[in-house]
Amino acid sequence: xxxxxxxxVQQSGRQYLPQRPSTNANLSPNQELLPLTARVNHRDxxxxxxxxxxxxxQQFGSPLYILDEETLRSACRQYRDTLKQYxxxxxxxxxxxxxxxxxxxxxxxxxxxxxxxxxxxxELFTALHAGVSPDKLYLHGNNKSHEELTxxxxxxxxxxxxxxxxxxxxxxxxxxxxxxxxxLRLTPGxxxxxxxxxxxxxxxxxxxxxxxxxxEVFAFVSQQKSLNCVGVxxxxxxxxxxxxxxxxxxxxxxxxxxxxxxxxxxxxxLNVGGGLGIKYTESDDxxxxxxxxxxxxxxxxxxxxxxxLPLPKLxxxxxxxxxxxxxITAYTIGAAKVIPEIRTYVAIDGGMSDxxxxxxxxxxxxxxxxxxxxxxxxxxxxxxxxxCESGDILIKNAQLPKTESGDILVVLGTGAYNYxxxxxxxxxxxxxxxxxxxxxxxxxxxxxxYQDLIRQDCLPERLKK
Length: 465
Ligand code: LLP
Description:
By secondary structure, the protein is α/β, with parallel strands linked by helices. It has helices spanning 53-60, 69-86, 103-111, 121-129, 146-155, 164-173, 214-222, 244-261, 289-307, 320-323, 357-361, 450-454; strands spanning 39-40, 46-48, 51-52, 64-68, 91-96, 115-118, 137-139, 158-161, 180-185, 227-233, 269-271, 313-316, 327-339, 343-348, 367-369, 379-384, 393-400, 408-412, 432-437, 440-445. The protein has two domains: 10-68 and 326-452, Lyase, Ornithine Decarboxylase, Chain A, domain 1 (Beta Barrel), CATH 2.40.37.10; 140-318, Alanine racemase (TIM Barrel), CATH 3.20.20. The strands form three sheets. Strands 4, 13, 14, 15, 16, 17, 18, 19 and 20 form a nine-stranded mixed sheet that branches. An eight-stranded parallel β-barrel has the order 5-6-7-8-9-10-11-12, surrounded by six helices. It has a three-stranded antiparallel sheet with strand order 1-2-3. Residues 96, 98-99, 117, 140, 198, 200, 235, 238-239, 273-276, 317-321, 357, 361, 416-417 line the site of ligand LLP.
């Protein structure tokens, strides 16, 4: 019998026994495998936000994203409050909504006082519709279109300028109009240990101005009346467990503030990006939100004191560590294929279309069987998606109780870059998402229908029968 468990100290050979303090307030969500409200109820079933997961699937269908409001709000508050606690200057947390951009998530983040980082016209449009105040919206992107830039200018959000082309475009778009707020994204030249696709701070990156061109950029920007440059931005990568790269980044960025001053630019905002990792499996050991925030605040405060600089307004942009742990994906188990002495495949009713991370980044996930929480773990199986693609495997060698078709398999930590990267591959409709809190479940994203799938299709007249 295998005895590895999703969380806490569980030693009875069962899948999961919640062993949590009576209050969850001090748990850093990114260090947990399950949402903070997870518990096993009298039906031996997993409950999130006071809602029985198996019942939710009966009500809302399968697969289903289940988002726990308490965990999400707790992460927002931990970022916001620890930044206030450790940083003596002004601060603002922005939610990097590329992790999961939809009306409800933007509205929750904004209601906790967070601003929103958006990376496209679509994300900006959604955040504005969620009622997020434009002065707390920051538009990123390495190739923003004229349409996106115009929407940003008209709505009054801050534009994080990535390159010369964009800078010049903005100068022409804003000629004779009131000055707009911009920040400059720079490449810090910092390496960190994460998947090569999600590293952004090293010199050979498509994002940001080359730091060697810094003088030229500052000199140019200082001459533009229509561009009110308020600060600098950098982001070094995602799913990072070490604290040193972020410390190095903070130090480099304070240096940039000084460099800008040489050109008469008084930069008052410094945005260190996001990147804090989360615990996807037992072997992941990320720092807590508080530890990450504290490390950055210390470096900036020390560097500014050493250089006799006033403290800039400090912004950070967490995505994954803010939302990943608050969501699980529930699937229904269907077929199983046993290949004696080789492998058992257990197939579920979703896969790479609702979670493309395993096939894209070889990400490893943890799962439990929601309707059999106390059953002993006896099997090692591979969880296969339903797509016509051999690589559509969600988890290799998952340790589970004996499963049968109809069981509800729950994959943990799916709040970040799952729905937002979901596709209709093989024409699978995207699943629904529900928000759970205090025993209530509200639909936040409808399940797509087959009609939705053909909504954008056009059949030329001559092909019609
Ligand atoms: N700020 C900027 C400018 C970013 O590019 C990103 C992520 C973030 C903030 C948020 O980073 P986080 O706190 O989530 O690590 N699809 C990949 C992740 C790509 C991250 C892109 N940028 C994945 O599924 O792992």
